[in-house]
## 1
Amino acid sequence: MSMRIRTSALTALTVAALAAGTVLTAPAAGAAPKAAAPKFLSASQLPPHPTSSWTAGPVTDGFPEELGFCVSTEGVPAYDYRHREFRTDLETSAVQLTVVTGTAAQAKALAKHYDDLIRTCADRIEESSPDVEAEGRDYGSLPVEEGARVRGLHTETSWGATDISLLSVGRDGRTVTVVEWGQMGDFGDAPVAAFKKTTTTAVKKLY
């Protein structure tokens, strides 16, 4: 999403994300045992921008604020969260999250939880903010490792700001990754095929 949506509707959309109501059952020891850290996308593996190159930030511990509109840690055990942000010189951005759980079963449940949050995000945005119209689209699953799914989200405010995001959730064993790409525009501006390639690369690259 562009900075206009992120500035003007931040509070409403974050509240919507936290109000999803889906809670995972935490095991007695939620934190995953330490293992090899999953690898992240590089800037060159993002959907190509027609006029600007991508810049990758450092890999950082914690959950990224950029995913707070649709995905959150609410009701999720204290897993190992790490993320990497990407930027262009224009209003296009991306972020990748990796979550290492304790078992493959926990990762499967978490991937479904995140996908459900993304699938219902548009409805929650409209319920929480009457000034924003939102629409979600399902772009299907990808046959990579234990699977991935790609979805789109378009938002338009009453004052005319329009933004498009592509989001995906994938899993490899006990690790889940979420990737989000966003810029100003609508569904016609979304590089769906390129984003599917990025998602496939992200899941394959984890280990």
Note: Confidence is low (pLDDT under 50) at residues 1-23, 25-29.
## 2
Amino acid sequence: MSTHAKRERLLLADLLEAAGPEAPTLCDGWTCRDLAAHVVVRERRPDAAGGLLLNVLKARLDKAMEEYTAKPYEELIQLIRTGPPRMSVYALKQIDEAANAVEFYVHAEDVRRAQPDWSPRDLDPVFSDALWSRLEKLARLTGRRSPVGLVLRRPNGQTAVAHKGAPVVTVTGEPGELTLFCFGRQAAASVTLDGDKEAVAKLTVAALGI
């Protein structure tokens, strides 16, 4: 596994373990047990994971989630730590980095920021750049349901258009915070929003994300 994805995987496992199975997350209605099961199903049950995007597979996904949430929590944590099966597409380094570095970063923050004693995490510049690079590629996908024009801006001035339209709201923040914002965690992201007041209000509750 590549550096960023592996590190974020292990961090997520540690956070889930420390929080405990019944602790809340930023994923609406999900406990840490639910989130852990989601991560494992996504990697180990490709026949069911498609239900995350395709309604025709939703029943299969629900069944797999029910099966894995019933497993001992410690087993789920260990499955996350050990990574995908050898024959999984996620076992390929390039796919692991492309698909999991952001996924695990977001879910780690889902656990961290849902706890009352959470503290900000300083991301190293290399990882921040990696998140920005990935966000540039995903911006239009994550912003496709934005009700207003959406521009993402780093403090260094780099920008990416997530959604064309008017009026325009510009969201400024570090790449990690912009990533959380674009993946539907607007309320938890440390960003500034500039634009029409009504447009900003609409954007903060929009269903952003993949």
Note: The two ends are 23 Å apart (CA to CA).
## 3
Amino acid sequence: MIKVLLADDHHVVRSALAGLLGLEPDLTVVAEVDRGDEVLAAARSARPDVAVLDVDMPGLDGLAAAAALRAELPEVATLVLTGHGKPGHLRRALTAGVRGFLLKTAPPEELAAGIRAVAAGGRVLDPRLALTAWDSADNPLTPRETDVLRLAAEGAEATEIAARLHLSAGTVRNHLTAVVAKLNARNRTDAARIAGEAGWL
């Protein structure tokens, strides 16, 4: 019997998944959580074979939760579900050691097969997500520009960013100007959105 942990902040979706997986003779749901920051504690307690994680959750997103699981409970295989195939998510998933990456729109039998595959040590990737990642551009930002934009996205002003990164305020403004130009963005907020969706932040 393959033990499964489900993490999704939408109760209806999570309940539907639990119900569908409960129909499979070799799968059993041993824990359900609705926040990413509850995944690790639930996994410590329930000791699942596979954690099925939604990408977008409060507290901690599914990819950060997957990385935490890998660090503390590497025996738990992770399969991530997403409603949208952002290329950056796939790259982060691979870095986090995720073994499966499927769209939420996948048929139930595909999800069940994916759980079995990752439990057996295999990997599963929705082909549509692979194509999206393949077609995506590489990150045009330098590491320093990324640091500056990340802090700007958190709401920090140029002077605060300068203090935190040991730069001058003028250098910070120059970096932000370069970032906006490179991403063909309207402003720094738009640049943060573009970079976030691409998985560069």
Note: The domain at 2-134 is CATH 3.40.50.2300 (Rossmann fold).
